[in-house]
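Q: I'm a student working through a structural biology exercise. My instructor gave each of us a protein and asked us to get a predicted structure, then write a short paragraph describing it. Mine is DNA-directed RNA polymerase sigma-70 factor. I'm not confident about reading structure output yet, so if you can add a plain explanation after the tokens, that would really help. Here is the sequence I was given:
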Amino acid sequence: MMVGPVPDTDGVEVGVTAEEEFSAVFERHYRDVERYLHRRAADVSVHDLAAEVFLVAWRRWERMPPDKTLPWLYAVAGNVLANEIRGRQRQRRLTDRVAALSPPPVETDHAEEISERAAVAAAFDRLGEPDREVLRLVVWERLKTADAARVLGCSIPAFAMRLARARRRLRAALEPSPSPPTATRIRAVPSTTGEAS
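A: Happy to help. First, here is the predicted structure for DNA-directed RNA polymerase sigma-70 factor. I'll explain a few features afterward.
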């Protein structure tokens, strides 16, 4: 598409296409737009915002006043930057609201949990194989009593009895073993009754 003559202030030749005209404006003012954005908000991605400014400029190319290109680009940059700042503020407010609704993180010491698991595993290993299999079917495989009895080929009451015994043995294996009694030394005391040997 051919456009009308462009003023000499932007250094664009007369009778060029809109794409050529836009390219010339881009080449001439991209760094100016970047500096404009950076001076106002150094913590934003200036390259991304500058690209967005020129995207808006391309979409609204017909509305751009040919004799005031740079001021028009600055106005677009100001709007793009304002949108970015508003978006960040909305995101910050949303993050704050979610954080206020969320329970505070609990830092737990997993050493106790690991120690308990190790104790259960050791107690489980000390059980006989029939007790371990009964517990595996109920706890690991999550079978109901009737299904677990079917797996072992026994009646439901027989399985229930085996399960009760296995649980009791596991609890007993988890109980801390009583410390062995301390041996006391008995000293032989010489007799003082005056007996002669």
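A: Here are two points you could use in your paragraph. Confidence is low (pLDDT under 50) at residues 1-8. DSSP finds seven helices and no strands in the chain. It's a good idea to check both against the output above yourself.
Q: Great, thank you!
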